Amino acid sequence: MKQKTKTGWPDVLITIGTIFIIIITLYPVIYVVSMSFSSAEHIMAKDVYLLPKGFSLKAYAMTLQNETVVRSFVNTLWYTAVGTLMSVTLTATTAYPLARRQFFLRKQLSFLMTLTMFVSGGLIPLYVLVQKLHLYNTRWSIILPYIISAYNLIITRSFFESLPEEMADATKIDGGSEWTIMTRIFIPLSKPIISVLVLFYGVGYWNSYFAPLIFLSNEKLHPIQLYLRGILITSESTGMGMDAVLMSEQMKYAVIVVACFPIMVLYPFIQKYFEKGVLIGAVK
Amino acid sequence: MTAMERLRKNVKRDWMLLLIILPGVIYFAVFCYGPMYGILMAFKDYNISKGVWGSPWVGLKHFKELVNSVYFGRLVKNTFLLSIEQLFWSFPIPIAFALLINEIKRKRFQRLAQTAAYLPHFVSVVVVVGILKDLLASDGGVLTQLFSAFGVAPKNYFNLPSAFRTLYVSSGVWQEFGWNSIIYVAAISGIDQQMYESAALDGAGRWQRLIHITLPSIAPTIILLLILNMGNMLNIGYEKVILMYNAATYSTADIFSTYVYRKGLLNAQYSFASAVGLANSVINVIILLTANFMAKKTTDTSIF
Question: Model's pTM, two decimal places?
Fold first, then answer.
């Protein structure tokens, strides 16, 4: 029996409150998109409030013709694709033995890996290590040190543990190896967790700015987030004089949209996965 | 059977599992436990050519330097105040939002609100700070214009020490309140509907059902997350602080981890910065254990 009460004033208040929250959440996003489609004079006058004024695609033309933007964008694509592929693979192969009840080092390794969520060596020792390993200023410096997150490892292990063990045992009796069990039985059943991992790692690599900031001094390797930091935060314009200032003001919003575009496009499709992901993690 | 024989038997049985997990083990050993060994730097005068082990021991020199430094009091104060203010706002708001969402009767509207609320989580911190800066720009940012409509003179908020914490916490709440509510929404949807029905038969109103059924039902989730949040309290997102602060706002914005970043990476004082980082971690662990202990005593819920 679902309560079918009539709509009273609490419902009106709830609706108004929710609409207010939606506006606060979405307004900055709408504002940036509108600014990116507005013409230069309206951007300088800052009189765009909701919809674009003096519709113009010039900012996008400038953005897509700007070599640094394109190069940074391609770099980010590379880091995200390679990083995510490696992270998901390694997280799955590390979680699998930890989920096998017979594995004799299961408890000890699980404990040591979980511990890294709470204690770490800190920023400076990691930085010194990256230099010692000659990773500094290479593309690997922003992937290898962060390749497995202990949190993602734990949710993957929990997921594997929830799969029926009997199938693994049956394969074993038929003479199948652990490798066969992992690749033929566990991985095909793991679509939900793999989508979650792709999402979490992918967003992480796409949005990361701090690791590139400290590990990459070579500008040719910089990802788009560092470029954004330059124009949004430290206000380094690409050239000198009024023209450059004008240009970066105008491009700013278009670059933000371009940098957020892939995630925003995928967003409606991934919603069911990330809700699931948070909840798999919460069970633990 | 001796330990050696047992080990040989185990390895023989599980050799393929060992092979599969080996790359992961190497990762954790090198990049997680390697830096822990590097903490030794905090007790030495680290010298690149001599390495961590070869550098001379100096005992607690760097810790003494930290405690005696003029900045120590400010760092402690800023770190704690920022953490507490952050916890104070960012912890209850997702709970309130989940409760609000739960009261919406039209499912499609509920879904829309959730979709909107989760979105900012996926925006990078660089973009969040960048947009905030733009909205608050003293020369015609949208929020500045809105404020001046109410008679507030334009200010450069990013150079204002008194505004820093508010900006940091409010933008954080904007970005994460929806995401952090997911877990409470799930906990609420797991509550037995019969409880609500019998309460309604007994004449309990909407508000009473919220207070006497919904809140107690999700209390364990709330407490568990509170402990976890407290344990992570001092791990404030320094990546965001670094984007937001400048020399003008150090008096409220400079926290332990940003100090580590400046001393260690910008001034290359590796040993001193490691000592600061270690001090921060130790305080962190103490807070986590205390929160856990208190929760165990008072509510029987704990993570250890």
Answer: 0.90
For the stretch A9-42, pLDDT in tens is 888 999 999 999 999 999 999 999 999 999 888 8
User: Chain B contact for A183, CB < 8 A?
Assistant: no
E-strand ranges in chain B read none
The position carrying tokens 């919904």 is B214
B154 has a chain A CB within 8 A of its CB: no
* Crossing angle for the helix pair B142-149 and B125-135, to the nearest 10 degrees: 40
Are B161 and B75 a contacting pair, CB within 8 Å? no
Q: Which residues of A touch B100 (CB under 8 A)?
A: 14, 17-18, 21
Say if residues B100 and A18 touch (Cβ distance below 8 Å). yes
Residues of B in contact with A256 (CB under 8 A): 127, 130-131
Cα distance from N-terminal residue to C-terminal residue, chain A: 33
User: How many CB atoms within 10 Å of residue A284?
Assistant: 11
Distance CA B132, CA A31 (A): 12
One-letter identity of residue A127: Y
Q: Do B126 and A233 touch (CB under 8 A)?
A: yes
Give Cα B36 distance to the centre of its chain.
Answer: 21
Structure tokens at B293: 């202990």
Task: Yes or no: say if A209 and A223 are a contact pair by the CB < 8 Å rule.
Answer: yes
Which residues form the domain of B220? Answer: 61-299
ipTM confidence: 0.90
Interchain proximity B113–A22, CB inside 8 Å = yes
The structural domains of chain A, ordered by start, are 1-56 (no CATH), 60-283 (1.10.3720.10)
Q: Please give the span between the terminal C-alpha atoms of chain B, in angstroms, as a whole number.
A: 34
- Contacting A residues, span 139-158, partner chain B, CB-CB under 8 Å: 144-148, 153
> Would you call B270 and A124 a contact, using CB atoms and an 8 Å cutoff?
yes
The predicted-structure confidence for B208-250, as pLDDT tens digits, reads as follows 999 999 999 999 889 888 877 877 776 777 899 999 999 999 9
Kindly report, residue by residue over A212-255, the tens digit of the pLDDT.
999 999 999 999 999 999 988 887 645 555 666 667 777 899 99
Q: Would you say B137 and B54 are in contact if contact means Cβ atoms under 8 Å apart? A: no
Q: How many domains does chain B have?
A: 1
Q: What is the CATH number of the domain that holds B257?
A: 1.10.3720.10
Q: Is residue B205 part of a domain?
A: yes
Interface of A with B in 50-89 (CB under 8 A): none
